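Re: export button greyed out
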Amino acid sequence: MNDVFLRACRREQVEYTPVWLMRQAGRYMDDYMKIRRRRSFLEMCKNPEIAAEITLQPVNRLNVDAAILFADILLPLEDMGYEVEFTKGEGPLINNPVRSGNDVERIRVLPEEEITPYVMEAIRLVRKEIAGRVPLIGFAGAPFTLASYMIEGGSSRDYLNCKKMMWGAKDLWHELMSRVSRVILNYLRAQVKAGAQAIQLFDSWVGTLNREDYREYVMPYSKLVIQGLKDLGVPIIHFANNGSTLLELVKEAGGDVIGIDWRINLDEAWARIGYDRGIQGNIDPAVLLAPRQIMEEKVKDILNRAENRPGHIFNLGHGVHKESRVEDVQALVEMVHEYSRRA
Amino acid sequence: MNDVFLRACRREQVEYTPVWLMRQAGRYMDDYMKIRRRRSFLEMCKNPEIAAEITLQPVNRLNVDAAILFADILLPLEDMGYEVEFTKGEGPLINNPVRSGNDVERIRVLPEEEITPYVMEAIRLVRKEIAGRVPLIGFAGAPFTLASYMIEGGSSRDYLNCKKMMWGAKDLWHELMSRVSRVILNYLRAQVKAGAQAIQLFDSWVGTLNREDYREYVMPYSKLVIQGLKDLGVPIIHFANNGSTLLELVKEAGGDVIGIDWRINLDEAWARIGYDRGIQGNIDPAVLLAPRQIMEEKVKDILNRAENRPGHIFNLGHGVHKESRVEDVQALVEMVHEYSRRA
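Workaround output, generated via the alternate export path:
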C-alpha cells in the first residue's frame, strides 16, 4: 500500500510529500458530472455504491496519496432530527433551525451503531474497492460549524443568530454544543470502525470568531471530539478555515495534523503550532486556474517553507473550485510529488 | 471643536479614547429608514443634501467623535465608465465588468476637479452643518477592493476572475490597478480639498490574498494612493478587512492609523504593526446584539489591550449590522468614553 500519507501524519520520514485535495471529488470532474446530472446531491451521498464510486474517481484520475469519503458534513443532521435540503445555487437549507431550548432538546444523539448507516456502508465498499492502493480519510464538520448551520438555517455571512445564542443564552449554547459534539464523536467513531484510516475535522466557519470566543465557546467541544477518538489510534487532521489568528488554540483543541488555509505562510503557521504536530496545506485553490509557471512557483514556495520537515501533507487551503480543469489538478499533484522527492 | 479623534490619529495624548463606527449611518437607524423608504440607495448617495443629512444622523444620535461621509465605495466607478446597480438583497452589480484589455483601456481617469461632484458638494454641506462639532472623515475603496468589483461584476466569494487576471495577465492587471489607483487618488484629493479632515481607505476584500500576492499585486497601488495624499496633511486610516496575516505589509503600504478587524487581538496586532502607527478597532460588530454585560467585558478587554497608549481609535471590526438597535449602539459609544476616560 501507498502509506506515505499515513506515515506523514505520524511525522515519519517519507520519500516525497504526500498530497490530497479538499473536495478532490466534485463538479470539476466529468466522471462526477455524469453521475450528478442524473441524481440529486443527497441521493448521491445516500447511495453507498455511488458514494464509493465518486470517492474513487480522484484516486483513479489524480494520483493523490489519499482518498476522502464522498459525503457532506450536514448528513448527520438528519439523524439528529433536522431537515436538510440541498438547493441548487443557494447551498444547504435547514428547514427547522434551532430557535429555542425546545429545538435543542429535540436533538437526537444516536449511538455509533445507528448513525447514517449508508455512510458506513460506503466506507466499507471503498475499502474493498480501493484494494489498499491509498488510505481512506473519513471526516465530519466540527461542532461550531455544524452548530452554525443548525442555528442559522444554512450558510451565513455574519453568524448573528449563532453569536446571539453564544453570548445571550450560554446554557442553551453549551447544551447544543454538547449534543452536537457527542453526535460528531459517534459519527466519527463509526467511520473509523467501518474502515476510515484517518479523520479530518472541518471547522469551516470558525474563522468568524476571535480567540477569546473560540476558547470559551468552541474549543472544549472540538477537544471532546478529538480526545474521544484517541483510543482508535487513527491520525486526526484538524482544519480551521480562515483561522490564522486561532492556530495556537486549534492545536490545543487537538489533532495530529493541523490544516491551514492559504492566507498564512506555512513556515510561520508551523512555527506557531509547534513541530510536535504535522501540518496540512496550503496552496490557494485559485492557483489551479493560474498558468503553470505560477502554479510551479507557488508549489515550490510551499515545499520550501516546509523545509522537508517530517509531517507535511500538501493540500489546498480550501476545496477545489468547480471551474478547475482536471489536467491542471493532475499537474499540481505531479509537481508536488516531483519537487518534493527526496534524493 | 471635539478634536479628540484627530489628535488620536496623530498619536497625541487624549482625555478619552475616541470612537466612531464603520457604517454608523445606515439601516439600523429609523432616521435613515425614513429617507431610505422613499428613495433608492444611489439617489440618496447622489443627492448632496440627503447625503449630508444622513452623515449627520449618527453624530446627532450617538455622540461619536467623528462623522464619516455617507457614500458608497463604488460611486467613482460610474465616472470611470462602469455601470453600477444596487439591487435589493443581492448587493451591487456592475453591468459591464472588465473582461479584456479593451475594458481596461476604457477606464476613464478623471481629474480631481471633475470626479463625482455631488460627493464633494455633500462634504461641503456637512462641514457647514456640523459646525465644528466633530471632524469629518472622507473615504474610498482601496485599489484591490475596487478592482475586484470591476472584474467580478459584483461581490464575490472566491475572486477567481480577479486572481486569474492577476496571475495570468499581469500586464493587464498592473494597467488596471494603475488606473484605478489614480482615480482613487484624485477622488480622495478632491474630498480633502472639499473639506474632509481625515481619510479612511477601505480594503474590504483583500483578505482573500496571501502575503506574497498582496506584496506583488496590491501593495504598490495602495502605497501610491496613500503617498499621493501626504502633501495634504490629513491623517490616513488604512483598513484591511480580514487582513490579520497581512498587517506588516498593510503598514508598509502606509497609513497613520491601521484599522483591524475583530479576529485578531488588538495588542498583538499593534505590536506587529509597531507603535509608530495608530490603531483602529476592533470589537466584533455582532457584540452590538449581545447582552450589555458581554458588551461591557469586550469593550474593557479592548481598552485594556490598548493600554492607554496614544493612538487608539475605538471602532468595530466591520460595519454596524442592520439588526442592531440604536440604544445598544449608543451604549457602546458611552462605554468606550466612560471606561477610557483618563483621570
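Chain B has 15 helices and nine strands. The button fix ships in the next patch.
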